[in-house]
Amino acid sequence: MSKVAQPADEQLSELVGEIYDAALDPALWSAAFDRACAYIGGSHAYVMAQDNVRKLVDFYFVSRHDPLYRQLYIERYFRLNPLFPTVQFFGVEETRGVPDVAPYDEFCRSQFSREYLAPQGIVDGLFSNVEKSSTGCTLFGVMRHGRQGLADDDMRRRFGLVVPHVRRALLIGNVIHLHKVEAAMLADSLDALSAGMFIVDAGGRIIHANASGHVMVAETNVLRAPNGRLGAVEARADQALLDVFSAAGTGDAAMGRRGIGVPLTARDGTRYVAHVLSLTSGARQKAGRVYRAAAEVFVHRASIDRPSPPEAIARHFNLTPAELRVLFAIVEVGGVPDVVAVLGIAEPTVKTHLRHIFEKTKSSRQADLVKLVASYSNPLLA
User: Cα(350)–Cα(328) distance, rounded to whole angstroms?
Assistant: First the structure.
């Protein structure tokens, strides 16, 4: 008797539950990514952070990927990836693929594609920024094997449905910054967080708060708690939180994108953000039952948005994506012949881009370009 295929909405629901469980226990990410690949249609998934200033990359969570190739990427091919300089230009949660960054045929001729992707049988993939900073970005990506073909509209649709949940789980995981949290001991385990942490019911009533949370409420600068209900001092944010708490009471699916990052503005103008995790789905139901709670809320100061060095350079000098790829290739690998080999584009094309870069940056030597990029990466060198 053949096995009946699971409906797509049930697949997504179970996947989302596993993703949020992984926010509290990072050991669960691999299994969650296996399920993500099955739902989205990919060969392996990853979360990778890249630092554009120090030229470093690190894989946080990976599934079904040969450790040897992962290490090769870290040690060598990250710097040869023609997508590297421009991926952080895209907004958070935007679904992107190779054609959004460079012509597909040109990308396939690159040294990165020929030496790194082709031997693995990888032909395509999708990625999205789940976090950005002034020095780099964190990407969630799903790769596509040759037997699966190129990314199609259905893969893009499914990938877009998964991205916001991966982002919320990662953000909460970053706030928690613990290797593992036992669900039944949730409150005790999180009491020492510098971020404010609250366990609330579906109406926002505070069941537990850590020390930082008590301070935030007592100061009534960004949060308040009239009659024991957690709320924001700003009316619009207060209603947004109440809506999220209510949705959390019915599970992950009801929350959707809400609660991924509720913006809060303090009375003194300082910006904060609240991340809300449902406690009524997945393994988290154990904690929810113990505390008769609907949600876990994490509140911390928001980071200041600053453009990354590639973004700042491109904006200041009005460089096209192709020119930016050539600029960073010059800095990373050397002269025109090396750039031709790495990017897989014709020498006249490289020289044309280079001429435009010299004109726009008012430079005359490749050494000037190296110094220019360094000055944006480290203002002390300017």
Answer: 12
Q: What digits encode the pLDDT tens for the residues 156-193?
A: 999 999 998 898 888 877 765 544 445 444 555 555 56
Separation CA 126–CA 141 (nearest Å): 6
Beta bridge partners of 185: none
Q: Specify the pTM.
A: 0.71
- What does CATH list as the number for 309-381? 1.10.10.10
Class for the domain spanning 183-301: alpha beta
pLDDT at 256 over 70: no
Number of helices (H) and strands (E) in the chain: give both, helices first. Answer: 16, 12
Buried b (16+ CB within 10 A) or exposed e, 44-67: bbbbbbbebeeeebeebbbbebee
pLDDT single digits (tens) 338-360: 888 888 888 999 899 999 999 99
Angle at 358 between CA 352 and CA 363, to 5 degrees: 160
CATH level 2 (architecture), domain 8-176: 2-Layer Sandwich (3.30)
First CA to last CA distance, the chain = 70
Q: Does this chain's domain 8-176 share its CATH topology with 183-301? A: yes
Q: Which candidate, 340, 326, 338, places its Cα nearest to that of 369?
A: 326
